[in-house]
């Protein structure tokens, strides 16, 4: 193999090569990507498909004077390699030193921090408009694809682009896929353009007033260089439609798994035990199985995913079996929420599942079409709370966002079994808009490790568990049982909940909401610790730490973060002087502050534990927990100090 990449520290080095050398460079980069993702993990499929196109872009255009904006930017690894950051992907000692998305703090070649979909054309329109107003002469290039074109904002950008009357180049990367398969009417037209080598009269880009050219082999560097040279310095908006192969370079065993290779986890060590499913896939799969068991009896029950299905436990097998009860809307969070509201208003039962960070894009629709109209629908919110993710995928603001939408009931289960009961209620008797904050890794670890004192251990003799629909299901030593049984089988615990039974919870329903009252899971005095959702295990740990200091704390599961249970909070005044709230999200505007506000100027001392108002970027969770004092020791120390004071 050649050694061209080792001598490229910027686009000027790339331009010194001959066009005939570029395929060899592409081979080097592709091999480096495969090594990097095997060791570190990352967005392998989209990057492998864009190797040649990225080389050609930097070979023809003059970045950073010419601005190249990658939509989502999860396919920007090659761009980074060619703009001075190759060692972050080729030197194992520097793996992870560059984020997986564009970031101006890293390089002048990156214009924006990007991690969400569909915005590149609008951003490029803005940069082109500013250039024209100030007399600039540079090129502006937007790279969009990999399903991003299904986003509404992408069409808004295309609509604007046609009226700019200035240089704007839109590279449409058509790899015939989104994260999973593509969905939507426009894809038939794109298939026809591919079939006719770009000559079909059914051309959505031309119909919107944009110039257009087609490159049949988007992984041919020579063809791409020629196309980009032809459109460089154009005086109007032009689309260059390139047909690429997502995941090009994966070995034969991986070729049929392009969806799973959208994101590739690091390869485990040869002697490593098989990895267990993470919380998203575990609890998402449980929810999907519970819903699937109802499809035959409930024709209007439908699961909606705005792309990213596999991440949330919606497997290909499940989707195939669900048939018409499952809809992938593409990367269209705003449409998906509004679509769900329409289904609910017409008598259906929609369940919409995606990540907290992606629900941010639909805040208006959640507030207006969903909550304001009081439609009976359910939002499953995955990956809420602090995490070690990059700064574009943080879910730390989810409680702040959802919990302050009027009319939206927001639930925070602290176990898989409780999540299933909440899901059954939300899609049944609730008849209102409900958001369920799906349990996270802390809850899953607590359940798998058997560390929740509030659960009564199941008898060792019994392996039969009664599911919510009354049908017995078998627990099978780690294999998933049917629907609601999965949670109990996973944890090895019965359905009893500490001092308050399931029936007791239902009996305390307020305005038809069985989750409006908090549950005291452990009685004590002086100190009460309320742990919301994923932070509940930490509340238990803090109480155990206080036990060692001779203080027996009360522990409370709030179940939800959309209302305040005044009756329970008032009852604490009699025997408690310190109330502690623990949440794994942003404190400012969050849930704990509402508890502090409720007690106001009363003698009750309230200590709030949660995250600062900041966006973090790939900071390990243990570091964040220490930063935010979200450890049992920190909480216990603060409580003891308050008691002494």
UniProtKB/TrEMBL annotation:
Descriptive protein name: 1-deoxy-D-xylulose-5-phosphate synthase
Top-level taxonomic group: Bacteria
GO molecular function: 1-deoxy-D-xylulose-5-phosphate synthase activity; magnesium ion binding
Organism: Bifidobacterium primatium
CC terms in the record's Gene Ontology section: cytosol
Residue ranges the record marks as coiled coil: none
Quaternary structure and interacting proteins, as annotated: Homodimer.
This protein's record includes keyword Metal-binding: yes
Pathway: Metabolic intermediate biosynthesis; 1-deoxy-D-xylulose 5-phosphate biosynthesis; 1-deoxy-D-xylulose 5-phosphate from D-glyceraldehyde 3-phosphate and pyruvate: step 1/1
Similarity comment: Belongs to the transketolase family. DXPS subfamily.
UniProt KW Ribonucleoprotein keyword: no
UniProt keywords, alphabetically: Isoprene biosynthesis, Magnesium, Metal-binding, Thiamine biosynthesis, Thiamine pyrophosphate, Transferase
Domain Transketolase-like pyrimidine-binding positions: 281-446
PANTHER family xrefs: 1-D-DEOXYXYLULOSE 5-PHOSPHATE SYNTHASE-RELATED, 1-DEOXY-D-XYLULOSE-5-PHOSPHATE SYNTHASE
């Amino acid at each position: 193999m050649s050694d061209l990449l080792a001598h490229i520290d910027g686009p000027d080095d790339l331009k010194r090569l001959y066009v005939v050398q570029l395929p060899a460079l592409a081979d080097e980069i592709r091999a480096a990507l495969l090594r990097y993702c095997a060791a570190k993990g990352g967005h392998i499929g989209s990057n492998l498909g864009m190797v040649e196109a990225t080389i050609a872009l930097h070979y023809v255009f003059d970045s950073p004077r010419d601005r190249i904006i990658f939509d989502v930017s999860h396919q920007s690894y090659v761009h980074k390699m060619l703009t001075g950051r190759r060692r972050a992907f080729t030197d194992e000692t520097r793996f992870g030193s560059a984020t997986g998305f564009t970031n101006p703090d890293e390089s002048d070649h990156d214009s924006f921090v990007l991690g969400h979909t569909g915005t590149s054309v609008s951003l490029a329109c803005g940069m082109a408009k500013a250039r024209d107003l100030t007399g600039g002469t540079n090129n502006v290039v937007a790279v969009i694809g990999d399903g991003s074109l299904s986003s509404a904002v992408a069409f808004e950008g295309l609509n604007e682009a046609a009226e700019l009357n200035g240089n704007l180049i839109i590279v449409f990367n058509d790899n015939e896929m989104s994260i999973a398969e593509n969905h939507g009417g426009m894809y038939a037209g794109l298939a026809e353009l591919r079939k006719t080598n770009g000559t079909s009269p059914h051309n959505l880009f031309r119909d919107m007033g944009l110039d257009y050219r087609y490159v049949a082999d988007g992984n041919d560097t020579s063809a791409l260089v020629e196309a980009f040279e032809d459109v460089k310095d154009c005086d109007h908006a032009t689309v260059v439609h390139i047909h690429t192969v997502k995941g090009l370079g994966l070995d034969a065993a991986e070729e049929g798994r392009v969806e799973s290779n959208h994101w590739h986890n690091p390869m485990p060590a040869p002697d490593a035990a098989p990895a267990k499913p993470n919380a998203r896939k575990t609890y998402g799969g449980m929810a999907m199985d519970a819903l699937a068991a109802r499809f035959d009896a409930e024709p209007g029950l439908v699961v909606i995913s705005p792309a990213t299905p596999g991440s949330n436990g919606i497997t290909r097998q499940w989707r195939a079996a669900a048939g018409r009860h499952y809809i992938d809307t593409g990367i269209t969070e705003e449409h998906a929420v509004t679509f769900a509201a329409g289904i609910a208003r017409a008598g259906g039962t929609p369940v919409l599942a995606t990540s907290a960070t992606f629900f941010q894009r639909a805040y208006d629709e959640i507030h207006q079409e969903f909550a304001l109209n009081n439609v009976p629908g359910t939002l499953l919110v995955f990956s809420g709370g602090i995490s070690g993710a990059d700064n574009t995928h943080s879910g730390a603001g989810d409680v702040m966002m959802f919990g302050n939408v009027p009319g939206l009931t927001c639930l925070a289960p602290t176990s898989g079994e409780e999540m299933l009961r909440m899901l059954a209620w939300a899609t049944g008797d609730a008849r209102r808009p409900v958001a369920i904050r799906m349990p996270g890794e802390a809850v899953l670890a607590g359940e798998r490790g058997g560390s929740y004192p509030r659960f009564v251990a199941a008898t060792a003799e019994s392996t039969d568990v009664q599911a919510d629909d009354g049908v017995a299901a078998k627990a099978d030593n780690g294999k998933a049982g049917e629907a609601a049984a999965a949670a109990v089988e996973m944890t090895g615990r019965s359905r009893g909940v500490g001092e308050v039974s399931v029936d007791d919870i239902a009996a305390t329903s307020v305005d038809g909401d069985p989750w409006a009252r908090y549950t005291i899971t452990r009685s004590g005095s002086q100190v009460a610790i309320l742990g919301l959702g994923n932070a509940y295990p930490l509340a238990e740990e803090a109480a155990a730490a206080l036990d060692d200091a001779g203080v027996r704390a009360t522990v409370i599961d709030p179940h939800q973060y959309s209302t305040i249970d005044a009756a329970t909070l008032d009852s604490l005044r009699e025997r408690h002087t310190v109330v502690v709230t623990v949440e794994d999200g942003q404190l400012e505007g969050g849930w704990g502050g509402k508890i502090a506000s409720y007690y106001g100027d009363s003698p009750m001392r309230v200590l709030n534990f949660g995250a600062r108002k900041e966006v973090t970027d790939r900071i390990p969770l243990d570091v964040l927990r220490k930063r935010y004092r979200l450890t049992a020791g920190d909480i216990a120390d603060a409580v003891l100090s308050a008691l002494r004071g």
